[in-house]
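User: Thanks for the earlier help. One more: Transposase. Can you show the sequence and predicted structure together?

Assistant: Of course, both are below.
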Amino acid sequence: MSGGCAATTVRYLRLKPDLKQPRLGRPDGDGLSGPHNQASECQARTAKPVSRCAAKVAIDGSRFKAVNSRDKNYTTGKIDKRRQPIEESVQRYLDAIETADRTTPTGFDVKTVHLYEKIARLRREMREFARIKKQLQKHPDKQLSMTDPDARSMATSGRGSGIVGYNVQVAVDTKHHLIVEHEVTNIGNDHGQLGRMAASRKERDGQAEAEGAAARGYFGGPEIRACELNDTSAYVPKPLTSASRKKGLFTKADLVYLAKDDVYRCSAGERAIHRFNTVENGMNLRVYWPSACPRCPLKQRCSPSHYRRIRRWELNIFGVSGTMKSMKLVGS
């Protein structure tokens, strides 16, 4: 590696966040991404281009702590939780003052003065919380970070161990184990990130086709469709979110879709035909149910509703063959 490339790589590895970085990053984001781009160019000159010699990437997200403490991050729930003990303390001090007025001959002593000072301080805190709560209404996600305005509160694997920071999405080449694409977001989960990473990958390396693997948190029909539109085959396990199986009830996996007739065959052998279309979260869905539900002998194990309604995304039926293949690969 040449001296310039080595120096660029060293400077890139030594980058550390500090209090001034958020103010610098907003207007100069393109400049700050330069070190990573230069490092990628150095790798490309000294070896085969990573993204072209093996078009297989693994995508995952990592939480990075921002220079913003949890106490300086506010949501409506946090403010209400912090105001409650303050209000209780104010009431307790007022009761103590009332007791002092009845028991003290003069009705006024040093202890009472201290209580009034504490009440004044607590009421200032309550006014500050009211001001911050008003500010929250201006933010779409109803969250405010005082030190680093772009940072957001995010949950982690441990209970009560959330951090205020960023969710960094990274695509790693599976052959060379090198980062080929990254994107910093302040969204606390990975849902909705798969399609964005696929688009970024294609824009950066221009490769026609690639394969991407990700964890369950990335699964979603629109995300897999977005990957397909960006020439990326997505391999994502389908999350098992339904509790019906544990309760001994039938799940959607027990239903068989008959593509030729556009109907479902339920566990009782009845046919669920198409009834109407609807739109949910921007997705065009087709809704099915069998006519025999009210008199079905297996109804106790199926649905508490009068009819077992089944929703299916239109792209699963009328989309291009690649979409249906991708959905099948990930366990749909």
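User: Great, one quick takeaway?

Assistant: The chain has four domains: 1-47, 53-61+167-237, 71-145, 252-329.
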